[in-house]
């Protein structure tokens, strides 16, 4: 069933009003960088993650955490923990993996053993920054949609306490979530510079706004 005009308008409005901090951190000059768009944030982090220089990759991974935790009061704790614990060998391995990653790759990334990147939420953030056109984030906040009717794919994702583990089942539904976001982007926003990740951010913003029923309706109507 195609989306209604109301659903398309609500999703478009949510995408435009996505209000997560558009920031990265310059670890060389020790200052926060504000960006005008999420495209700029994505390009900055992608450039680091796909570099052949271990220190660039370290900074890129640090910025995935910095951006992802920026609204919390403990974001520096997470970033510092990563930077203090990550090894040169892990960064060298990450260079090879990031430049040759196929499919969702969550288990492949997890096997690197990178500090702070063990659960699906931040592994999916990392996967998204490596390819925002095809991959998206599966944040725990989206799990609020799991209990709604109509039933969404989030109802099939298994949580473990306060996190989403990487399992065969969860990785399969993560791929379905990416596919759905990409299909929405292509069907309703083709040629308008809206990527799969923008659809995810729009749904995330609907959840943030308390518009859960609209978000669930968009997901189940595609």
Structure, described:
With 222 residues, the chain is mainly alpha-helical. The chain folds into 2 domains: 5-19 and 135-220, no CATH class; 23-118, no CATH class. It is 55% helix and 4% strand. It is built from 10 helices and 2 strands; from the N terminus they run αββααααααααα. A two-stranded antiparallel ribbon has the order 1-2. Helix 1 crosses helix 10 and helix 9 (196-208) runs antiparallel to helix 10. The radius of gyration is 17 Å and the shape is globular. It starts with a helix and ends with a helix.
Task: Explain briefly what this protein structure is.
With 222 residues, the protein is mostly helical.
Strand line-up of the largest beta sheet: 1-2
Tally of distinct domains: 2
Tell me the β content.
under 5%
Measured on Cα atoms, how large is the radius of gyration? 17 Å
Largest sheet: 2 strands, antiparallel
Structural class: mainly alpha
Question: What oligomeric state do the depicted chains represent?
Answer: single chain
Counted beta strands: 2
Shape: globular
The overall pLDDT average reads: 95
| Low-confidence regions | none
Annotate the secondary structure layout.
Elements: H1 5-16, E1 23-26, E2 31-34, H2 38-49, H3 54-69, H4 75-85, H5 88-99, H6 106-110, H7 120-130, H8 168-189, H9 196-208, H10 212-220
Antiparallel strand pairs: 1-2
Features of the shown structure:
2 strands; 222 residues; mainly alpha; two-stranded antiparallel ribbon
């Amino acid at each position: 069933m195609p989306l209604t005009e109301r659903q398309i308008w609500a999703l478009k409005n949510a995408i435009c009003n996505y209000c997560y901090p558009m920031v990265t951190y310059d670890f060389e000059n020790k200052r926060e960088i504000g960006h005008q768009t999420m495209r700029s944030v994505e390009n900055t982090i992608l450039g680091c993650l796909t570099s052949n220089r271990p220190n660039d990759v370290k900074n890129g991974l640090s910025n995935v955490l910095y951006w992802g935790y920026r609204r919390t009061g403990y974001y520096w704790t997470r970033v510092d923990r990563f930077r203090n614990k990550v090894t040169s060998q892990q960064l060298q391995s990450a260079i090879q993996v990031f430049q040759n990653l196929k499919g969702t790759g969550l288990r492949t990334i997890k096997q690197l053993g990178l500090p702070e990147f063990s659960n699906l939420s931040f592994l999916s953030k990392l996967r998204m920054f490596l390819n925002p056109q095809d991959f998206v984030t599966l944040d725990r906040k989206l799990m609020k949609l799991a209990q709604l009717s109509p039933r969404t794919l989030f109802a099939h994702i298994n949580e473990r306490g306060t996190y989403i583990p990487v399992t065969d089942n969860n990785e399969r539904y993560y791929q379905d979530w990416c596919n759905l976001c990409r299909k929405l982007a292509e069907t309703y926003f083709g040629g308008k510079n809206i990527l799969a990740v923008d659809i995810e951010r729009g749904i995330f913003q609907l959840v943030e706004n308390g518009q859960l029923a609209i978000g669930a309706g968009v997901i189940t109507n595609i």
